[in-house]
Amino acid sequence: MSKAQVSLRKKDILGLETMSSPEINLILDTAKEMKNIIDRDIKKAPTLRGKSIINLFFENSTRTRTSFELAGKYLGADVVNISASSSSVAKGESLRDTLLTVEAMGVDIIVMRHEAEGSAQYAANVVKPVLINAGDGAHEHPSQGLLDMFTIKQYKRKIDGLKVAIVGDILHSRVARSNIWGLMKMGAEVHVAGPQTLLPRDIEQVGVKVHNRIEEALDQADVINVLRIQRERQKKGLFPSAREYARIFGVNAKRLALAKPDALLLHPGPMNRGLEIAPDIAYSEQSAIQEQVKNGLAVRMALLFLVLMGGIQIEAAN
Ligand code: CP
Fold first, then answer.
1. Residues 91, 157, 235, 236: which is the catalytic one?
2. Burial (0-12, 13-18, 19+ Cβ within 10 Å), 190
3. Closest residue (by CA) to atom 3 of ligand 1?
4. What 3-state DSSP class applies to 223?
5. Which of 18, 23, 207, 216 could form a disulfide with 211 if both were Cys (CB 3.0 to 4.6 A apart)?
6. Considering the entire predicted model, what is its pTM?
7. CA 18, CA 135: separation in Å to the nearest integer?
8. Choosing from 51, 141, 156, 191, which is the catalytic residue?
9. In which element (H, E) is residue 192 found?
10. Which residues line ligand 1 (CB under 6 A)?
């Protein structure tokens, strides 16, 4: 046996559409190691000491921003947060100038969330530091897709062959897109369901099964990923009322029972309780929503580690 270096093919983490299954496996395996650090009393590893990370958030966040911050700090890096509302963006500074300003400070990683689809790729073209996409409009949210797969693997021991139902506001969801790309690469059978007005046109062409009735998607599912209704991205009413949505598309105990008895319930958060998910199942025995948050930390530690350290050493057969 000799040692072989396994690493990510690209400098930046922009999305799962362009990530290979060996790369996804590398991140999930590394995240498993990182989770051991989170479970320690002293949550510190010096791996990224001397490195600096800027969290540049043009949209609100609780989970992603905080977990990237903690992930960087647990690995010994210096982490600074910039939110658009309290920065010079509020005075009219452009995205390009903001990125160049951050780059001039010599940072190693920029973690960016922005409302425009394609903004992560744009930023990666503008600046030299590693760019990690923390969500670009309705396009991709790769670290969320990865933490969802990590959580599925933790409970189900595999992803290949599972029926995964992604239900709700697919149209406006970057989480849905990253999940779909990632899960299909890992061999899952992906079903999506939602009102016709919240399903992207031609979504079936990417290889998912599409349902207008949520019951069909949930039938014998191994995993249910409930998406948030993204009112902030909806320009006009796309369903009659919250009450109607909950009645026809909300996931409740009765609908959850259509899935396999041990089906796993996921939600990326933040939840609209009583709209897309019934309050009594949100933290039920089948729910892994809190575990998703913890796993988000492990996955983001893995990403920061891999993009800066260039990969990991594995035993390789000669
Ligand atoms: N799931 C997710 O991205 O949550 P935040 O908006 O709180 O980061």
1. 91
2. buried
3. 64
4. strand
5. 216
6. 0.95
7. 15
8. 141
9. strand 189-193
10. 61-64, 144, 268-270
